[in-house]
């Protein structure tokens, strides 16, 4: 669906030009493909047939396992297959951020901005072994990457996923999503992601429970008290067969009390997300500058994004992988944040992105890939995905016009030994 846009605010046009984005990109309202994921606990072929029959549409495979494109732009919430947990909605770009973590069973993974929870569910399906017979679908073919990962996880016989979010209602949404899709082996913290510093669990999380930790006044849940001294540092154990109980948080900090993988999907202005921008394009630009491009808003976001990525790096184990992503195309929220982290931390090293095809150079993007139907199901399947290089080496941008996704910036960072740190940050 394409709809002409009559006029855009001058400040928005200036913003696009400053960030190397063709103004013509936003001259039309476009609808990106809708993607869904089939949970790992569902039999794949039977579920495909079930969904296709009910929704009267084809599920077309993408570049990632269990992620499908629907030839259907409407809501999926009314269908029985969605209500029963046979599918859940997730954009392909968001799933690619999870794939960039290079996950496998047995890793401890931290998601610092976890709500509303679709990415957290994908992570838990791999690392926490939701089914004992399922092979990992996101592990890299690179034996070198596997060996590096083993250095972190050799001593661990189990994996875990820890989700953190500062929003009370958003975290409740995440918890409900995990319950709906029967995700196990996970902890949820209601806490500020810029300050979070709890280690991974030292013992396996019981597979019939989700642990929710944080301020007992903000997430109501029944629990039993075990003494005043432990009340401040305690966990709610929910989703169990009986009443919830309280258990103490481990304090085993230090080099071994860190995470092999960290995802920082930071709050941003959403200007790269077509789904968000279409609301303004269709309904008018009132309040856009203040909410998206205002100086105060941009300054506070920059500080937040710096704090989130720095704390994510603090929680990252040596040899681990941190993925930073936003749905903005603003350099100050993306490449500038990466440059800031690298300058502040000599032991931070930027890794190559995790594409299955070579990203396009933005300088070669000549308006030839406008979304006029060419970015359809077949396009997504045939091209895998078509990211473009960001404005810094080893960063990529998935813009809706080339990738057929909702829009995403992505960078991968590892923590090296101090002795390996290079004097130059142009890595």
Write the layout of secondary structure elements.
Blueprint: E1 2-4, H1 10-18, E2 28-30, E3 34-37, H2 44-55, E4 59-61, E5 67-70, H3 80-83, E6 88-89, H4 92-99, E7 108-111, H5 118-127, H6 143-153, E8 160-165, H7 168-180, E9 186-190, E10 210-214, E11 234-238, E12 246-248, E13 259-265, H8 274-283, H9 288-293, H10 295-314, E14 316-326, H11 335-344, E15 348-351, H12 377-383, E16 388-389, E17 395-398, H13 400-403, E18 408-415
Parallel strand pairs: 7-8, 7-13, 8-9, 9-10, 13-14
Antiparallel strand pairs: 1-2, 3-5, 3-6, 4-5, 10-11, 11-12, 14-18, 15-18, 16-17, 17-18
Would you write up a description of this structure?
Residues 1-416 form the SAM-dependent MTase RsmB/NOP-type domain. This is SAM-dependent MTase RsmB/NOP-type domain-containing protein. With 427 residues, the chain is an alpha/beta fold. The chain has a domain at 2-30 and 266-420: Rossmann fold (3-Layer(aba) Sandwich), CATH 3.40.50. The protein is 29% helix and 19% strand. It has 13 helices and 18 strands. The chain has helices at residues 10-18, 44-55, 80-83, 92-99, 118-127, 143-153, 168-180, 274-283, 288-293, 295-314, 335-344, 377-383, 400-403; strands at residues 2-4, 28-30, 34-37, 59-61, 67-70, 88-89, 108-111, 160-165, 186-190, 210-214, 234-238, 246-248, 259-265, 316-326, 348-351, 388-389, 395-398, 408-415. Strands 7, 8, 9, 10, 11, 12, 13, 14, 15, 16, 17 and 18 form a twelve-stranded mixed sheet that branches. A hairpin with a 5-residue loop joins strand 4 and strand 5 (67-70). The two termini are 41 Å apart. The model is unreliable at 132-156, 216-255 and 355-384 (pLDDT under 50).
């Amino acid at each position: 669906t394409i709809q002409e846009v009559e006029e855009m605010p001058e400040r928005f046009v200036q913003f696009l030009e400053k960030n190397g984005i063709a103004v013509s990109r936003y001259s039309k309202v476009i609808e990106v493909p809708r993607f869904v994921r089939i949970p790992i606990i569902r039999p794949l072929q039977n579920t495909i047939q079930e969904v296709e029959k009910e929704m009267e549409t084809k599920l077309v495979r993408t570049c990632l396992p269990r992620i499908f494109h629907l030839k259907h732009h409407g809501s999926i919430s009314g269908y029985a297959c969605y209500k029963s947990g046979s599918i859940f909605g997730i954009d392909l770009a968001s799933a690619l951020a999870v794939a960039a973590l290079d996950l496998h069973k047995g890793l401890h993974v931290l998601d610092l901005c976890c709500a509303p929870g679709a990415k957290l569910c994908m992570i838990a399906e791999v690392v926490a072994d939701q089914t004992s017979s399922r092979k990992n679908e996101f592990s890299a073919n690179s034996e070198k990457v596997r060996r590096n990962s083993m250095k972190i996880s050799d001593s661990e016989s189990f994996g875990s996923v820890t989700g953190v979010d500062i929003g009370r209602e958003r975290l409740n949404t995440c918890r409900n999503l995990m319950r709906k899709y029967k995700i196990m082996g996970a902890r949820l913290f209601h806490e500020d992601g810029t300050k979070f510093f709890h280690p991974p669990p030292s013992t396996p999380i019981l597979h019939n429970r989700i642990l929710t930790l944080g301020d007992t006044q903000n997430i109501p849940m029944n629990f039993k008290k075990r003494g005043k001294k432990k009340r401040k540092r305690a966990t709610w154990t929910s989703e169990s067969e009986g009443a919830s109980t309280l258990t103490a948080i481990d304090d085993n900090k230090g080099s071994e009390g860190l995470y092999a993988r960290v995802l920082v999907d930071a709050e941003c202005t959403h200007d790269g997300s077509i789904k968000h921008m279409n609301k303004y394009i269709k309904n008018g630009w009132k309040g856009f500058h203040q909410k998206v491009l205002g100086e105060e808003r941009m300054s506070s976001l920059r500080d937040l994004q710096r704090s989130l990525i720095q704390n994510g790096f603090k929680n990252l184990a040596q040899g681990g992988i941190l993925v930073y992503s936003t749905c903005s195309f603003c350099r100050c929220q993306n490449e500038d944040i990466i440059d800031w982290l690298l300058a502040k931390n000599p032991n931070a090293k930027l890794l190559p992105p995790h594409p299955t095809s070579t990203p396009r150079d933005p300088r070669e993007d000549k308006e030839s890939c406008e979304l006029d139907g060419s970015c359809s199901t077949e396009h997504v399947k045939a091209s895998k995905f078509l990211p473009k290089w960001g404005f810094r080496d080893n960063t990529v941008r998935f813009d809706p016009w080339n990738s057929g996704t909702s829009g995403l910036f992505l960078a991968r960072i590892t923590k090296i030994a101090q002795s390996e740190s290079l004097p130059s940050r142009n890595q």
